Hints:
mainly beta; seven-stranded mixed sheet; four-stranded antiparallel sheet; 0% helix; globular
Amino acid sequence: EVQLVESxxxxxxxxxxxxxxxxxSGFTFKNYPINWxxxxxxxxxxxxxxxxxxxxxxxxxxxxxxxxxSRDNTxxxxxxxLNSLKTEDTAxxxxxxxxxxxxxxxxxxxxxxxx
Length: 115
């Protein structure tokens, strides 16, 4: 069974950093792009970042220069480093993978940025 489990969220003040983790199981992790999404209250989900199997990365403009995606294939884990957090970054963050044509996602980890 393909599973993704996120962790690392929390309640932080503006300007602080967090590192989110996405632990994967049930598939050959190193071969798949991993995506991060977020959903703020009352808003549609938003794609945030992707790391490909060759470690190329992509980001939505709103987080470029502040967020960094990475992966450790030895641990079957992807990460999202969130720096210089803003109140507008408040959202449920979750990771996803497209496996056998299905969009698989984790349950998410809440990030709340508030002074």
